[in-house]
Design goal:
The radius of gyration is 22 Å and the shape is elongated. The longest helix has 37 residues. Strand 1 and strand 2 form a beta hairpin. With 137 residues, it is an alpha+beta fold. Helix 1 packs antiparallel against helix 2.
């Protein structure tokens, strides 16, 4: 397997991993204000993707892969709203442990990593095209 094909495989695995990461982040943002329905019911808990390295037997390259999703065990936020159906005896409602500012920054980082991997794919493809053009002469 050529080095260019190996680079394409590594970059493609990075694209898949960052796509999966962005989906998890989007789910977190979508549920940032999801509360329980009854008193004592836990709200949405922030999800955190985990990544690992996998050896591609065909190319010998180390590829990145999302290996799972873990729940962030951080504390829930509290908001005083005694009229809410999920309010506890003191009138507080538990809100998800999602900070939309952090999620937005994570999304931006994932987007930049995606773009970097896409640049690798485009550069490798350009190199292959130029090589073929040179061989045709």
């Amino acid at each position: 397997m050529s080095d260019i094909n190996m680079a394409l495989g590594v970059a493609a695995s990075g694209l898949r991993a960052q796509t999966a990461r962005m989906k998890v982040i989007a789910e977190n943002i979508a549920n940032a204000n999801s509360t329980g329905v009854t008193p004592g019911e836990a709200p949405y808990r922030r999800q955190v993707p985990t990544f690992g390295e996998v050896m591609d037997r065909e190319t010998g390259a180390n590829l990145v892969r999302m290996t799972g999703i873990q729940q962030d065990q951080g504390a829930f936020r509290l908001r005083y709203d005694p009229t809410h159906p999920a309010a506890n005896g003191e009138g507080y409602v538990q809100l998800p442990n999602v900070n939309t500012l952090i999620e937005s920054m994570d999304m931006r980082e994932a987007q930049r990593a995606y773009e970097a991997n896409l640049n690798v794919v485009e550069t490798a493809r350009s190199m292959l095209t130029r090589t073929l053009e040179l061989l045709r002469r």
